[in-house]
Amino acid sequence: MSSQTASPPGSPPAFQVELQQFDTNYTSAFDAGNAQALAALFAEDAILMNTFGHILLGRSAIAARLEEAFAGPFQGATLQITPHHSTALSEHIVVQQGISRTMRKGDPPDYRDLAYTKVFVRQGTVWKLAAAQFAYPEPNPPMA
Question: Whole-angstrom Cα distance, residue 69 to residue 33?
């Protein structure tokens, strides 16, 4: 069910390049602790589910939670996003899975990896995050 716009051979589809820029904007806002800039990347009616199954509905609720996080446990934290797979369901909808790593300074540094599924929607010429779900990744199975 993957549809991708035509790209020259060997180059990524346009949506992948655009979502790489989205990730750059997302990590920049996160690293700066800027909850409002980060929340602006979400659709107005976005849905966010954290690792505990708690659901936030709407950009304003997401912004409020981000404000709390940046004033508390994520203060001074940085973020890395590693997409693993993206599927274009249409020209305006992309589903992506990957891993995000949140790092906090310390001795030793502290980090947390989360698996994610994100749904992006194109609104005009801009991609917005419409839904995101985070989970702890499963540990690697033991080698046989």
Answer: 9
